[in-house]
Specification:
This protein has one domain: TIM Barrel (Alpha-Beta Barrel), CATH 3.20.20. The chain has 256 residues and is of the alpha/beta class. 44% of the residues lie in helices and 16% in strands. Strands 2-1-8-7-6-5-4-3 form an 8-stranded parallel sheet. Strand 4, helix 6 and strand 5 form a beta-alpha-beta unit. Bound molecules: orotidine-5'-monophosphate. The site of orotidine-5'-monophosphate has 20 residues, from strand 3, strand 8 and helix 10. Pathway: Pyrimidine metabolism; UMP biosynthesis via de novo pathway; UMP from orotate: step 2/2. GO terms for molecular function: orotidine-5'-phosphate decarboxylase activity. This is Orotidine-5'-phosphate decarboxylase.
C-alpha cells in the first residue's frame, strides 16, 4: 500500500488501468495500452481469466509484467479463494511466477483464504461489495448480530490490517451509497473500485463517496473495457485522470 500511495502521489492519479484482453492482436494491443496509459496509471489490473483463456496466457502475463514500468503496481485480479494450503500455491503463482504486486481475493472461505496472500510489500484487495447487479442477495444479507455480509467482510479485513497493513477492499462503483457506507466504516483502507465505464458507475459519485477524508486518496478507480476499446487508450486514460482530479479538487474545496 505504501508503493501504491507513492505512485498515486507521484503520478497524481487514482486511475487503475484494467487489462482484460480480448480480440485480435492481443499482444500488440496490450503493449500499446500499457505504453500509452502508463504515465497516468496509479496501477494496472490484469484479470487472470482473460489470460488463462489463451494457450500462452501465463507467459503473456509474465511479459506484461516486464512492460509495466518499475514503481507502477500490478494487481493480479484472480479473485482467489481457497483453503490456506492451496491459497499459498496461488500466492506463489501470483507473486513468484508472475511477479504481481497485489491480488484480489474472495473471502468466502474465511481468513485462511486471505492471509497466505498477505506477504510484506504486497497489496491484497478482498471482495466486500462487488459491482455486479442486480443487488446482491448474498452480500446484502443482514446478519443476526447486525450489519450485512459485506459489512462483516469489511470489518474483518479492517481488523486484520492491524497485523497485515497490505489489506484493502474491493468495492464496486455501481452503488455509491454502499461505497460511502463502507468508506465511513473503514476510513483509512485502500479500496479497489471497479465499475466505471462499461458497467456505468458514476465517476463523480465514486470520487465523492470513496476518497479518504484524511488525504483524498484511498480509491483506485478501475476501468477495463473502456480503455481497451478506446480509439486512443492514452488519450482516454489522460481524460479520465483529469476528470478524476477535477472531481477530487471540487471535493476538497467543498470540505474546506
Ligand atoms: O475485483 C474486481 O476487479 C472486480 C470486482 C467487482 O466487483 N466488479 C468488477 O467488475 N471487477 C473486475 O473489474 C473489471 C471491470 O471491467 P470493465 O467493466 O470492463 O471496466 C473486470 O476485470 C472485473 O472482473
Amino acid at each position: 500500500m505504501e508503493q501504491l500511495t507513492r505512485r498515486a502521489q507521484t503520478a497524481n492519479s487514482l486511475l487503475c488501468v484494467g487489462l482484460d484482453p480480448v480480440g485480435e492482436n492481443v499482444e500488440a494491443q496490450l503493449q500499446r495500452v500499457v505504453a500509452e496509459t502508463a504515465e497516468y496509471a496509479a496501477g494496472f489490473k490484469p484479470n487472470l481469466a482473460f489470460f488463462l483463456a489463451r494457450p500462452d496466457g501465463v507467459a503473456l502475463l509474465q511479459r506484461l509484467r516486464e512492460w509495466i514500468p518499475q514503481g507502477v503496481p500490478m494487481i493480479l485480479d484472480g479473485k482467489f479463494g481457497d483453503i490456506a494450503n492451496t491459497a499459498e500455491r496461488y500466492a506463489a503463482f501470483a507473486y513468484d511466477v508472475i511477479g504481481a504486486d497485489g491480488v484480489t481475493v474472495n473471502p468466502y472461505m474465511g481468513e485462511d483464504a486471505i492471509l497466505p496472500f498477505a506477504r510484506p510489500g504486497k497489496a491484497v484487495f478482498v471482495l466486500a461489495k462487488t459491482s455486479n447487479k442486480p443487488v446482491h442477495s448474498w452480500q446484502d444479507q443482514e446478519l443476526v448480530k447486525g450489519g450485512t455480509v459485506s459489512d462483516f467482510s469489511a470489518d474483518v479485513v479492517q481488523t486484520l490490517t492491524h497485523e497485515h497493513p497490505g489489506l484493502g477492499l474491493v468495492v464496486g462503483a455501481t452503488n455509491p451509497a454502499a461505497l460511502g457506507h463502507l468508506r465511513q466504516r473503514c476510513p483509512e483502507l485502500w479500496f479497489l473500485v471497479p465499475g466505471v465505464g462499461a458497467q456505468g458507475g458514476d465517476l463523480a459519485a465514486t470520487v465523492q463517496a470513496g476518497c479518504r477524508q484524511s488525504d483524498g486518496l484511498g480509491v483506485l478507480i478501475n476501468t477495463s473495457r473502456a480503455l481497451w476499446q478506446a480509439a486512443e487508450p492514452g488519450a482516454a486514460a489522460r481524460d479520465l485522470t483529469f476528470q478524476i482530479n477535477a472531481l477530487r479538487a471540487e471535493r476538497l474545496s467543498a470540505t474546506i
